Amino acid sequence: MFGILVAVGLAAVFLLGKEDTVTSDDFVAQDHLQVATFAGGCFWCVESDFEKVPGVIEAISGYSGGEIENPSYNQVAGGKTRHVEAVEVYYDPEVVSYERLLEVFWRQINPTDNGGQFVDRGKQYRPIIFVGDDEQRKQAELSRKALEDSGRYSDPITIPIEPSVAFYKAESYHQNYYRKSPGRYKTYRYGSGRDQFLAKVWGEDLELNFDTEERKKKMTAKSEEMNKEEGAFVKPSDAELKAELSDIAYQVTQKDGTERPYTNPYHDEKRAGIYVDVVSGDPLFSSIDKFDSGTGWPSFSQPLDANSITEKLDFKLILPRTEVRSTEADSHLGHVFKDGPAPTGLRYCLNSAAMRFIPKEDLKSEGYEEYVHLFE
Question: Class assignment of domain 2-207?
Answer without folding.
Answer: alpha beta
